Amino acid sequence: MKTFKLRQDGEKWARAIERELDMGCYVHRTEAERMTLTELLERYGKEVSPKHKGHREELWKIGVILRDRIAKYSLVALTPMLVADYRDRRLQMVSDATARHEMNIISAAYKVAAREWGIPVSNPVSQIKRPPAGRERKRRISQVEIDAIIQHSKTRELPDFLCLAVATGMRRGEIIRLRWQDIDLGRRLAYLSDTKNGNDRIVPLSSEALAVLQAMPRRIDGRLFSLEPRGFSKAMRKSVVRARCAYEADCARDGVVPDPDYLCDLRLHDARHEAVSAFFERGLDVMEVASISGHKTLSCLKRYTHMRAERIALKLG
Fold this sequence. Notes:
Layout: H1 7-23, H2 30-34, H3 37-47, H4 55-66, H5 80-91, H6 96-115, H7 143-151, H8 158-168, H9 172-177, E1 183-184, E2 189-192, E3 201-204, H10 207-215, H11 229-254, H12 270-281, H13 286-293, H14 298-302, H15 309-316
Antiparallel strand pairs: 1-2, 2-3
């Protein structure tokens, strides 16, 4: 039985139901009124998310949403205004891309509920503006910065991971999923299966990548690394902060003005960006780089390519 605190609210609800009955468009909403966003996302996380390639990352994002007050609302009570409030609050703490991903998850869960699970509910996310897609990054990480990050890393696996990412251009998840059985040191090849774009890929190993792999200890479980994606990203952020603090302390001691760009605005994914850009600078053509990086289109590849102007100037003579 549906109850209301105020009589006028009950009468308003009854009139709305009567109108729908008169028009022949009444929909029984009991399940949508009873189910909360928490219950919807938990079911989505168990039944739908595991089918996605990045399901571990998606489950982590679902956990973030579940810890917010928005998750307590029923599917019917969750209005576009409430979702917009969630968006605005998240944008004060995370990037546009992260907030957009979280809203996409809520939207996807509503769509599955309506289309696959027979829960008659409208999608509140579709009625508001989502944060824009991430802007193209031009930040490249220098070898000096890489050395400083490695020096100040307190996570044992980060140095090898970072060096391997810069040397191969592989994605974070691809490196984490690697097992020693996927690597042929003799032929200098790494075999990647079921990558982000759905294809298998063979990545040639440079001398730098080979040196990193040959020096790495062998784990009993066959994996190269034990940490999960978030663990490496967190370790990277902390190492960058420690390296920057040490750099600023050195500058203060020596009476030097710190470089505002050095060890600032760096992300783990910038290692892939650096690798792809370096491939072009070494003279590889578009098809060769795409075969290594796994990019399907030139437009996607261009987002990760920023050749250093001084290198181009030297080529011009």
